[in-house]
Every structure is written in C-alpha cells, then in structure tokens.
Amino acid sequence: MNMDLLHDITFYIMYGAAALAAFVVVERGIFFSYNLGKARKLEAALHKKVRSFEELPEDLRKRDSLPLQLLRQLFEGRVGLNSHNELEDLGQAIYISMRGKLSHGLWILEAVVAGAPLLGLLGTILGIIDTFKALAEAGVSDPGEVSRGIGTALYATALGISIALVGLVFNSHLQDRLELINDHLKMLLLRAGMGTAFTAKPVAAPATSLQHA
Predict the structure, then answer these.
(1) What DSSP character marks residue 2?
(2) What is the pTM assigned to this prediction?
C-alpha cells in the first residue's frame, strides 16, 4: 500500500472540504443578509395595519424572498379560519416548512468542523508511517531527513485543526444569524395574524320534539 499517495489524498480531501465550507459560508451569509433585510422591511410595513398580501408596498413584493413567501401563505391560508387555534396551527405549519430552507447546507459546515481534525490526524499517521517505512528501507543516514518527514506529517494535523477552528467561528456566526432570522419570521407571523376576521360557525337549530296526537 502506497502510504505517500494516501497521505496526499488526505490533503486533497481537506483542501476540498475547506473550499466547500467556504462556499457554504459565503452562500448562507448572502442568503441570510438578504432575507433578514427583507424581514425587517416587511415588519415595518405591517405596522400600518396591512390586512392582505396586496396591501403590502409594491417595492417589497417585486423581489421574492423567504419572509414574503411566509406572509403570502399566511394571508392566503387564514381565509375561512374559525378560531385563533386554527390560526396558530397555520402559522406553525408555515414556519416549519420555511425553517428547512434557512438551515439548508449548514450541515456541510458542521461536518467539516467535526471531520477536519480527524482527517488531519489521519494524514499525520499516514505520513509518519511512510517516513518510518522509508527509513527502514534506506537506513538512518541523515537525521534531518527524519525531522523533515515528521514535520510534513504533522502539517496535516495543523491544517485540519486550522480548518476546524475557522469553520467553527463562521458556523457560530451563521447559527446566530439563523436564530435572528427565525425570531423575525415568528414576529412577522404574529403581526400578520393580528386582526384576522374569523368565520363564524353556523349554529345548529335546536331539535324540536314532535307531539303525536
């Protein structure tokens, strides 16, 4: 088994994981910033007693966003509701359906944070094995070669830990942004649901007893 090749493959995997994590950070960062800004603008618009989707400012309805989809579903779905309990159930169902779109891709970043140190340790072990294998075949003629071989092997662990630390910082930041957006989405649902006119249930006529002659 070529340990040197496996050692190089481990490095390539870590570089690929770092690039993938960077893509997730950039993509989620832009997505969160855009939708958070839209949510705040929609909250300000709902202060004006907006009671239907068409009453929202036109400039907020031009470009689609997650908060706008949430309000559209609530305004359309609350028609014909009979109680506050049904409105709460509708709001929870809409929120749950939207929550998955927010956390999309974050599992990749979490996997990189958890797996990068392990990959680095694996690369170090493979590098040390390859170094000792070379020494066993050629003999110890230059101690400097041993030091360089061990240093190269330890570089894999350092790289893995570095990737994990950077990923952990960005993951914590994105999780905070995720919680903030969730709070704004819940606030949108609450404000949009205020003043909902519930459909009165028809009252059944009391049964009349028939008297027989």
Answers:
(1) -
(2) 0.79
